[in-house]
Amino acid sequence: MKPSKVILAILITIALLFVARRASQRQVPVVIETTTYGELTFSHTCNHIFKGDNTTADLDVIVSGGLVPEDAVIALYYEPRTTDTTETSNRAARVEAITIPGHGLVYRVSVPNQGRGSEFSYRFQLEDAAGRILATIPVEESRDKPKQLWFRFEGPRSTPLLVAHILCMFGSFLLMVMVILTAFEDMRNRAVRIRLGKQTLWATIILFLGTFPIGIWLEHQVYGTYWTGIPFGRDITDSKALVIFIYWLIMLYLLRGSALSGDPRKDVIGATAARWVAVVGVVLSLALYLVPHSSGSF
Question: Does the residue 246 lie in any domain?
Fold first, then answer.
């Protein structure tokens, strides 16, 4: 491939990865919940994510407008979050909040680290001595189905492993861009077909390394799991990575002559089909990269 096309492929890859990164990163917004009881205002900031194997979940309620009644307590109720709804099948743990010295009327509950990837729904309740609920954070939608917040514990990522993952994703994407540029050249030319096959081969190899040994280990470091996509789970991040890899593996098989032995005559498909299989592979990969991480089941 001409140096000018390699430079063009690098520039296109950088631009596409920047767009894909911005589009695929699911931002978890910070939530601020407030409620009132009489002249008092209760405020809680939910950051959702607590990173580090030894990190506790410090959940604070700030009280303004006066003092909490002497016969009342602020209690946290939390339980494992097993679905995206507020319904859970476990009995909620109850912990009373305590004031933090030197921080005014700040009430805190520190939930011990429950392990990588563990996720909990929770709510605060202002209760009197008889156990009656005076106020809730967040404000209840109904008695039967109270609104819940959530938090998750995540482990620390290894920086060298993360860098290796990023380099593999960049390398595979760069080769994919080269593939689509090559695909629009003369596919009847033997040298062009061989180049397409070799680019497909190395794109598949680097994609495999970044997705599986490196990607799976990163997932274990952060969430404590190795694989949650199909066929063992339905997480969309793992599932879309598997779909991309399977397509490129099939494409490698179709171009096996050009890719493995340098003989296009041994390819399963002809010149025109090779062009469109390559184009579809790149477009499919980009489209799936744009799907936000952890955005649902697949």
Answer: yes
Number of domains composing the chain: 2
Task: Answer yes or no: are the C-beta atoms of 170 and 214 closer than 8 Å.
Answer: no
User: What does the pLDDT average to over 160-171?
Assistant: 93
Q: Is the pLDDT of residue 97 over 50?
A: yes
Strands (E), the chain: 31-37, 40-46, 49-51, 57-64, 73-80, 93-96, 98-99, 106-111, 119-127, 133-137, 149-154
- Nearest-angstrom CA–CA distance, 191 and 194: 5
Q: Kindly tell me if the per-residue pLDDT of 83 is higher than 60.
A: no
> Does 97 fall in a domain?
yes
Domain finish residue from 112, 131, 154: 154
Residues 167 and 146 in one domain: no
What is the predicted pLDDT for the residue at 16? Answer: 80
50 and 12 belong to one structural domain: no
- Total-model pTM: 0.82
State how far the Cα of 149 lies from the Cα of 164, in Å rounded to an integer.
Answer: 35
CB hemisphere CA count around 240 (13 angstroms): 18
129 and 217 assigned to the same domain: no
Burial of 83 (0-12, 13-18, 19+ CB in 10 A): exposed
| Residues 56 and 73: beta-carbon distance below 8 Å | no
Q: What percent of the chain has pLDDT over 90?
A: 72
19: in domain: yes
Neighbours of 142 (CB within 10 A): 7
